[in-house]
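Final report, section 2: Outcomes. Of the targets proposed, SET domain-containing protein is the one most frequently requested by collaborating groups, and we therefore present its record in full.
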Amino acid sequence: MPDERMQCSSNRCEATLHKDCSEQYDGSCPRHVCFYCKRGASFHRLKHLMPACTQCFLQTNRMAEPVDPSKTMISCSIWPSTSEGAGLAHGIEEAFRQLPLPYTDREFNIDPIKTEELESLTKPPTYVLLKRNVYIVKHKCDGDAIEGGCTDCDPPLACKTMCSCRSVWISCSRACKCSNECTNRPFRREKRIEVVKTQHCGWGVVALESIQKGDFVIEFVGEVIDDVTCEERLEDMKRRGDQNFYMCKVNKNFVIDATFRGNACRFLNHSCEPNCQLEKWQVNGKTRLGVFASQAIEVGKPLTYSYRFKQHFGPRMECLCGAANCQGKL
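The predicted structure is given below as tokens.
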């Protein structure tokens, strides 16, 4: 009979095959013989050696391997990759190449622009660190206002409130007759501070130690330029669209620009209710600008001073200091 079927003689196999079809396998059940190499295997090892096709009854021994070794179902060559089957795969690497996703061997790269944006969120803007002012223009020493320095500051006064140099913002020098206990040499030791990211005002500075009222905190240093150079740099900043300014005008033709070179003082933020103030001092014949505490400051508190900002171009900048008496604009 044309429809006569034969059942596999194995007790655990339920496969049936037309009698005429069985002749292609020399009387062997196709579930026990690889369709490609015609090699067989015992039934209890069949699931490990010959995975079954997901589309038909064929078994494969070596010519195809499952992508996941824990599974025994793949597609044979009768069902090419253009259909629902995955096609013939010689090993795991080739199986991955047959997946619909593109096969590439490139590492994950981040756009350099995005990298810079991420770094700007975690690192403060770069600059060249300076310990003292660098004069870009010619400068002559201003000279001490008091010839010979102070003479009436012996201990226990040690150049405190009545010091003739301190009263006119002059730091005691070698010309003074004061002792080693002199307290009027503020630019010798800076306070411990740290540059941190703030919530609303970009980068800022906080105190790492307790600071008393009147204490010297840090010197404002940078490139000393004249008024003409200052205007030129401001025009360049306008063309670049810069929003951050690090300049401080001390006198006529004496501007300290910390845009490119300076120290951590450049990150002190403005406040309409500041806890620090800028003071101009004479130190060994040179004009220097220092940040002094105008009140007691606890550890971790932000350090601020009033910018007395003069807008050179564009609308006035919004103030985000958060003080109770905030003016709203710089």
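The longest helix spans residues 227-240.
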